[in-house]
């Protein structure tokens, strides 16, 4: 987890806004795959891979944000 701490916040934000939302038209892949997950239609391996690929930047951004605020507060 230390490698996340060493990276700039902007890197994770940029990744989330580009890869995390690509393609932008007609709707972001991550949004489409999340809707499929909720509907129970996310069953094909390619769709699952797509969710992981486009969701990972958002997960990393959330972890970076959480760790940044946790470390500034003095939490482990």
Q: How many domains comprise the coordinates?
A: 1
How much of the sequence is in beta strands?
under 5%
Q: Let me know the largest β-sheet.
A: none
SSE string: HHHH
Mean pLDDT: 89
Percent range of helical residues: over 70%
Annotation, overall tally of beta strands: 0
Identify the overall geometry. Answer: elongated
As a whole number of angstroms, the C-alpha radius of gyration is: 15 Å
Distance between the termini: 12 Å
Output the structural class. mainly alpha
Number of helices: 4
**Stretches where pLDDT falls below 50 for ≥5 residues?**
none
Report on this structure.
With 76 residues, the chain is mostly helical. The chain has one domain (7-73). It has helices spanning 2-6, 9-18, 29-39, 45-73. Helix 2 runs antiparallel to helix 4 and helix 3 packs across helix 4 (45-73).
Task: Throw out a few tags for this protein.
mainly alpha; 4 helices; 76 residues
């Amino acid at each position: 987890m230390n490698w996340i701490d060493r990276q700039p916040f902007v890197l994770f934000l940029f990744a989330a806004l580009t890869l995390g939302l690509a393609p932008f038209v007609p709707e972001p892949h991550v949004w489409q795959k999340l809707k499929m997950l909720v509907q129970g239609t996310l069953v094909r391996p390619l769709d699952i891979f797509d969710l992981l690929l486009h969701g990972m930047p958002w997960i990393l951004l959330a972890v970076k944000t959480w760790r940044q605020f946790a470390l500034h507060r003095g939490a482990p």
